[in-house]
């Protein structure tokens, strides 16, 4: 990827492999399966997931806890613990190259310069005993061989870019000395330091309060636009997603149950689960009434029920739902849903 | 931090006074006559006994004895042993030896303990890991005098690899090696286990995940990021252990006849030499408190989340 | 000397004794161990313990200091290592006609380590210093027989614990000592004493150089004697170095040039060093090495064991304190009920010898079997004797011991033996420490039986009888009083001929069997071990190693 910042690059520590997206296609996940082999049994966390990501595009992956969204992200990054995780099938292609079959050392070098990730809890995700500037600068020192003082300069600039006030004074401070929002900004700075093509944000605002949430999302949006990154935003929070995402993929029990453009999905969901999620958002005019929730619990990933995995909780469930698993099909051009009755749901 | 240090120093004073009073009371309230053995088998003649009691204030009631003692202490006079040697001179001669022994034991246990702990922490469940877990358990369970006696006999007397006792007033490095290893063996077991556990825990943490996500080599993620955090409890343990070792390893010094503080305490307890015991323990308490303070400050340096104010 | 376990004393004695003054300088060539060629010169290291007091002979009654004093100070008389017989050292002659006035003539030219000559006044001044109570010298009591001793004692009433407080004795010099000229002085005793020459070998009778009186305190750290060794240095609690005194003119000179006395806190450490040949001699063999005579296999040809002038006894409380034991038959029965041999084998690993009388075998005048059948284990006879006496009226027999030393095992074993043989309950009762036990005994509050021990001051039968069993003697814990016994002692004291004196003492000892004021248990044995570098190791009657015969191979 070409860089837009003025960085000193005396010697490139990367292997010299360059990745070029064809037609702007950065990431191609095809039929990905991920299992966890535990003493109690095999849990299928990801059950055949496929999607694309292009330059400048932001995809939100939405789902409850345990739906498999974080696992998807970690599988793409290659930071799953294998064992107990096993990838029995599927492909993850970055700029046309299969990441899963790449030698580990080459794969490692894509983390940071090509694909980057930020995590939910910045306090535990940052190393508590090193100064934040040092941690950011580490990216330059380790990947690009930049010397200490130059790397630190670049770190300061990054911190300024993510709008940390008085960055130069605070570069030697420690993570616990910042507020939640500031810490998240530091994580972001660290992630974009080497100008990656893909940025995965795993629940970046879940641990923050509402006003800060909005600021962070705005920052992410801004950075994405500026660098034309592909952004994968993983969240369970529909409200957060609305402004930043272009497309949404809803995940349930390790599968996508709906994929659509954000506006279309919000106005007319095509899957009962999505509908249920939207209806469960509390609104001010609902004051005094019982909150609408989706009854029941997500399935045990070791024992996914036959048929549609959502059927035990679905109001519309019929016999066919319990028998046949619905495939993700194009209901309307550009909109995919995995439901036997998707058309009805859209028009409801 | 300056105020923290001053506060801690001031807090030490009541602790020292309390500890010395406790020891003083225990020693002098104990049965056992310091005159025993001064005159061989026979009880001492009255004039001799009277002079002795006068010199060591043994006729005064306990609180007055204590008061006189503290008064002297404040002037730096730790009293005399029952054979007329100044306690402070004895301590001055012996502390360097004990300190040397302590440092050697510390180096031994730290280097090997941490190394072993790191290896077994990274490769959990392997042959080496199990071997280390069992052997450390065995070492912790065996009392130090058994370890000391056995190693003295087999390594010293039988195989001649090490000197059997130390005995000299200026022990060489080589002479102190075996006692240092015996002394460090139990702490070594603790340190290796502590390092292992701490490392295992830290390897599971989020920031190691981040380090991997940053594209850092495994070696760096473990060896720098995880280890730096894992060593915090280990270093503080070593610091405390140093304070403990400076207290003089009574049993080890007796076995190897090392003229250190521990040997002095051993001899003084046996001889019912109250002044020596209290004087030595007072110094020990002071040293230990100082080392504790240093360890606390060190902890604050190692872990930036701890602030001292 | 009254004793706690001999082992403690032996332990204490240890290395300094091993310093082995060079004795028997080649003239007679008497050797004990079949030694290889014994050289003169060289230096060795030996196990030691720290002297408890400053090194002044009149103030040293414990064994750590005692062994240094013995090497550094010579006296009028020296005890032969093997027989304990007294031989003139500084004395040219000690003569008396009536066992009451003694003329002591000194050899000429004996020097102190500082070059000054040993003169008569050095003896007289030293002995007066020791006797003068305000000087608080612990062996001052040895001067008691000398006329005028009482005038140097304190009798103040201001402080019951310290008779010298606010009191100045009448005199500073005993009337019984007179300097005649530089090499002659006279001793007058208040009563007849038949073994004064024997006594004069004890350290309390050492001469002191003039420099002592200028600064006794400094002297205590660096004593100047006239013995075959001089003290080079004493690093407290660490080491003592003695070296040969070239100008020693006596017969008992040193073979070795130097002895390094290393102070050990633990007997095992010293023993291990001897095993590894790092230490040349130790006189304290730890219990772990005594079991099953392990030390003999560890140190083949490098060990020795010999009886010493120590006896352990059990004394009965005075009749008016505890009438239960008044009948001598009861006492004899108890004595017969003790299986001495088994106890020695099991508890002491063979380091004791069953006693057959009240006097140690190492001394001149010892006669075996004075106790007769009463000291032989015979449960049947014991029981019969007890019945003759009408049985034991109390509900149990008690044996008190001081719990601060290792006595529990043997007292319990002794009690068991008594219980099984006599069928009477017996309990070993621990008193918290030696001082407390002695206090209770001294105050005549201790009931039942209690352990007592005696370590000889000088090798004479008289020392085992008079201080303990004479009416009103200072160590007569049982308040034994037998006019016939006292008369025999007085008669013995008047005898000019030592053999005749001994015969009288033996008669007196025989009386003890009939009265049984105390039960003789066993004599002590000293065990020593050495490295393969030394030879000529001899054990003295005091349980120490003789300096004179110790040499390098």
Measured by DSSP, the beta-strand proportion of chain A falls in 15-25%
What is the CATH homology-level superfamily of the largest domain in chain B?
MetI-like
For the largest beta-sheet of chain A, the strand count, sense and barrel status come to: 8 strands, mixed
Straight-line N-to-C gap of chain A: 45 Å
Strand order of the largest sheet of chain A: 6-7-8-3-9-10-12-11
CATH fold name of the largest domain in chain B, please? MetI-like fold
Unreliable parts of chain A = 1-14
State mean pLDDT of chain B (0 to 100 scale).
Answer: 85
| CATH top level assignment of the largest domain in chain B | Mainly Alpha
**Secondary-structure arrangement, i.e. CATH architecture of the domain at 25-245 in chain A:** 3-Layer(aba) Sandwich
* Helix/strand structural class of chain A: alpha/beta
Structural class call of chain B reads mainly alpha
Multimeric state: heterotrimer
What overall form of chain A do the CA principal axes indicate?
A: globular
Cα separation of the termini of chain B:
5 Å
Write the CATH fold name of the domain at 25-245 in chain A.
Rossmann fold
Rg measurement of chain B, Å: 24 Å
CATH architectural label of the largest domain in chain B = Orthogonal Bundle
Instruction: Write down the domain tally of chain B.
Output: 2
Let me know the number of strands of chain B. Answer: 0
Radius of gyration of chain A, Cα only, in angstroms?
21 Å
């Amino acid at each position: 990827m070409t860089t837009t910042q003025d960085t000193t690059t005396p010697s490139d520590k990367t292997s010299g492999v360059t990745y070029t997206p064809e037609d702007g296609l950065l990431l191609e996940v095809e039929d990905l399966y991920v299992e966890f082999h535990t003493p109690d049994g095999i849990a299928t966390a990801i059950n055949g997931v496929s999607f694309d990501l292009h330059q400048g595009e932001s995809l939100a992956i939405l789902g409850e806890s345990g739906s498999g969204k974080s696992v998807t992200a970690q599988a793409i990054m290659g930071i799953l613990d294998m064992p107990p995780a096993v990838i029995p099938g599927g492909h993850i292609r970055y700029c046309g190259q299969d990441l899963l079959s790449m030698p580990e050392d080459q794969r490692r070098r894509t983390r940071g310069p090509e694909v980057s990730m930020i995590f939910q809890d910045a306090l535990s995700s940052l190393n508590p005993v090193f100064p934040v500037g040092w941690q950011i600068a580490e990216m330059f020192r380790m990947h690009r061989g930049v010397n200490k003082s130059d790397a630190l300069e670049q770190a300061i600039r990054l911190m300024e870019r993510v709008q940390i006030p008085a960055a130069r004074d605070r570069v030697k401070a420690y993570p616990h000395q910042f507020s939640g929002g500031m810490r998240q900004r530091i994580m972001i700075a660290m992630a974009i330091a080497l100008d990656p093509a893909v940025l995965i944000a795993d629940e970046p605002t879940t641990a923050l309060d509402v006003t800060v949430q909005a600021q962070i999302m705005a920052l992410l949006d801004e950075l994405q636009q500026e660098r034309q990154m592909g952004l994968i935003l993983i969240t369970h929070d529909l409200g957060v997603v609305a402004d930043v995402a272009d497309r949404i993929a809803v995940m349930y029990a390790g599968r996508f149950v709906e994929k659509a453009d954000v506006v279309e999905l919000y106005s007319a969901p095509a899957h009962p689960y999505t509908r249920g999620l939207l209806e469960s958002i509390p609104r001010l005019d609902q004051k005094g009434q019982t909150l609408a929730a989706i009854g029941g619990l997500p399935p045990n990933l070791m024992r996914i029920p036959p048929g549609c995995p959502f059927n035990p909780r679905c109001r519309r469930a019929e016999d066919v739902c319990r028998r046949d698993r619905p495939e993700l099909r194009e209901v309307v051009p550009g909109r995919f849903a995995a439901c036997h009755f998707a058309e009805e749901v859209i028009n409801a | 931090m300056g105020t923290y240090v001053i506060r801690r120093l001031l807090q030490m004073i009541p602790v020292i006074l309390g500890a010395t009073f406790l020891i003083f009371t225990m020693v002098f309230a104990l049965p056992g006559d310091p005159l025993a053995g001064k005159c061989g088998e026979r009880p001492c003649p009255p004039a001799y006994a009277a002079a002795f009691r006068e010199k060591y204030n043994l006729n005064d009631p306990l609180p007055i004895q204590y008061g006189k003692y503290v008064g002297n202490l404040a002037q730096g006079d730790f009293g005399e042993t029952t054979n007329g040697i100044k306690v402070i001179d004895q301590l001055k001669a012996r502390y360097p030896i004990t300190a040397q022994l302590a440092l050697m034991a510390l180096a031994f246990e730290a280097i090997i303990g941490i190394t072993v702990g790191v290896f077994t922490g990274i490769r959990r469940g392997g042959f080496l890991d199990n071997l280390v877990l069992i052997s450390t358990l065995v070492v912790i369970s065996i009392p130090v005098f058994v370890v000391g006696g056995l190693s003295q006999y087999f390594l010293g007397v039988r195989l001649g690899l090490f000197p059997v006792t130390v005995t000299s007033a200026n022990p060489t490095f080589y002479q102190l090696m075996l006692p240092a290893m015996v002394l460090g063996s139990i702490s070594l077991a603790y340190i290796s286990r502590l390092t292992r556990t701490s490392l295992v825990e830290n390897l599971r943490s989020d920031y190691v995940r981040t380090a991997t996500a940053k594209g850092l080599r495994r070696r760096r993620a473990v060896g720098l990021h995880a280890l730096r955090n894992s060593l915090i409890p280990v270093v503080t343990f070593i610091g405390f252990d140093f304070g403990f070792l400076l207290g003089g390893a009574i049993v080890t010094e007796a076995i190897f006849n090392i003229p250190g503080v521990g040997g002095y305490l051993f001899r003084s307890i046996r001889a019912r030499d109250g002044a020596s015991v209290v004087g030595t323990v007072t110094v020990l308490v002071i040293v230990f408190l100082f080392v504790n303070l240093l360890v606390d400050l060190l902890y604050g340096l190692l872990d930036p989340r701890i602030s001292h104010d | 000397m009254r004793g706690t376990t001999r082992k403690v004393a032996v332990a204490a004695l240890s290395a300094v004794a091993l310093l082995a003054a060079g004795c028997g300088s080649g003239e007679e060539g008497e050797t004990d161990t079949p030694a290889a060629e014994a050289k003169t010169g060289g230096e060795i290291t030996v196990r030691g313990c720290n002297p408890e007091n400053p090194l002044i002979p009149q103030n040293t009654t414990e064994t750590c200091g005692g062994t240094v004093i013995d090497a550094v100070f010579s006296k009028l008389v020296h005890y032969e290592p093997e027989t304990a017989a007294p031989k003139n050292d500084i004395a040219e002659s000690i003569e008396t006609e009536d066992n009451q006035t003694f003329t002591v003539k000194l050899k000429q030219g004996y020097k102190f380590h500082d070059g000054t000559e040993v003169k008569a006044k050095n003896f007289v001044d030293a002995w007066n210093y020791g006797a003068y109570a305000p000087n608080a010298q612990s062996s001052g009591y040895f001067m008691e027989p000398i006329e005028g001793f009482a005038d140097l004692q304190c009798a103040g009433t201001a402080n019951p614990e310290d008779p010298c407080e606010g009191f100045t004795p009448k005199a500073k010099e005993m009337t019984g000592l007179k300097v005649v000229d530089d090499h002659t002085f006279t001793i007058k005793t208040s009563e007849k004493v038949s073994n004064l020459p024997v006594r004069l070998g004890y350290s309390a009778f050492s001469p002191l150089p003039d420099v002592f009186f200028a600064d006794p305190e400094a002297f205590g750290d660096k004593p100047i004697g006239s013995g075959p060794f001089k003290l080079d240095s004493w690093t407290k609690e660490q080491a003592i170095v003695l070296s040969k005194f070239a100008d020693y003119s006596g017969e008992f000179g040193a073979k070795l040039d130097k002895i390094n006395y290393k102070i050990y806190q633990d007997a095992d450490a010293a023993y291990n060093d001897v095993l590894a040949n790092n230490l040349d001699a130790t006189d304290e063999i730890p219990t772990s090495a005594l079991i099953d005579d392990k030390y003999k296999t560890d140190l083949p040809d490098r060990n020795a064991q010999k009886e010493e002038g120590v006896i352990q006894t059990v004394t009965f409380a005075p009749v008016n304190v505890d009438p239960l034991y008044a009948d001598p038959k009861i006492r004899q029965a108890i004595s017969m009920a003790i299986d001495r041999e088994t106890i020695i084998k099991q508890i002491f690993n063979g380091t004791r010898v069953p006693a057959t009388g009240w006097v140690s075998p190492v001394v001149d005048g010892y006669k075996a079997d004075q106790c007769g059948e009463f000291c032989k284990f015979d449960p049947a006879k014991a029981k019969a004797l007890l019945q003759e006496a009408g049985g034991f009226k109390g509900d149990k027999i008690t044996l008190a011991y001081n719990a601060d030393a290792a006595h529990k095992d043997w007292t319990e074993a002794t009690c068991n033996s008594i219980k099984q043989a006599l069928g009477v309950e017996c309990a070993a009762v621990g008193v918290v420490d030696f001082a407390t036990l002695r206090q209770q005994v001294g105050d005549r509050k201790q009931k039942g039986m209690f352990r007592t021990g005696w370590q000889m001051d000088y090798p004479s039968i008289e020392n085992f009888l008079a201080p303990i069993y004479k009416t009103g003697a200072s160590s007569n814990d049982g308040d034994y009083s037998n006019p016939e016994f006292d008369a025999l002692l007085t008669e013995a004291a008047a005898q000019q001929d030592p053999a005749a004196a001994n015969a009288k003492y033996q008669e007196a000892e025989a009386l003890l069997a009939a009265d049984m004021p105390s039960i003789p248990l066993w004599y002590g044995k000293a065990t020593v071990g050495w490295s393969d570098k030394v030879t000529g190791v001899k054990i003295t009657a005091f349980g120490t190693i003789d300096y004179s015969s110790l040499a390098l191979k």
